[in-house]
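Feature request, filed as a ticket because there's no other form

It would be nice if the structure record came with a short human-readable summary line next to the tokens. Right now we just get the raw output. Example of a typical job, pasted below so the devs can see what we mean:
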Amino acid sequence: MEMSKLSLNSQDKIAVTLLIALYARAIEAKLPDALLRDEYAIHLVEQIDYDFSRFKLEGHDQVTTIMRLRQFDLYTKDFLLDHPRSVVVHFGCGLDTRFERVDNGLVEWFDLDLPEVIAFRQKLIQSSDRCHPLGCSIFDQEWLTPVRMYPDKPHLFLAEGVLPYFTQEQVRQLFLLLAQIFPGCVLICDGMTPSMVHLHNLKLGFSKLAARLNWGLKNGHQPETWGQGIRMLSEWFYFDKPEPRLGSSQLMRFIPLFARGVGIFRYQLGDSISELK
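Raw output as currently delivered:
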């Protein structure tokens, strides 16, 4: 007997975008030259009642989505190598299985997203003793209570495909909150210039599939002006290194607007990370 599929009952356009990254991982897992292989994503797509073909993921969009996922994985693995017994909070986790991809057997992990997304996620993905679901908004400070239970451990916060949907003031307040409560923590987030935000929203047109973006940053150093102790550790851009799968899109590296228009940034917020106790 065929099992019934699950439907995501959410009118929040930001929540619906979680399916895009899932579908991209499922498509990628079937390719012989996959940049990131997540077989679990294929299984998840098969369990969800949704017309994924609406996303029209192909070519440049498919490759850049996977490149972003892969770079977040690499940054997370690097952090766990330096700090094996750390705490990771994945903001806007959606249906990502990053914990399963990078788990070192020691990390305490929190997957945070809107309540309806977490409820849906729990029907599909099992939690573990070290992977804890948190159903709330990033800006609802109730998530702070369980995360603060590990004051002596280094903290890593991941915000992939999340912060550009909010206003600059909301993003600034989040930076300052993390710096105050988790001094020395590391935040990894993606962002784009105001020009790229504008182009992205124009591309969406009147689409009902995705929410519009709000926040754009002039460059990766801009958040350093928001408060004392905010320091950019590194930045990564899609065209830093040749990627054959990008095809002719690689020529955009010669156009300043695109070459450094969208990137991933690592920040240290507050004092230096304490040595692991």
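Something like this underneath would help us a lot:
The longest helix spans residues 59-82.
The chain has a mean pLDDT of 89.
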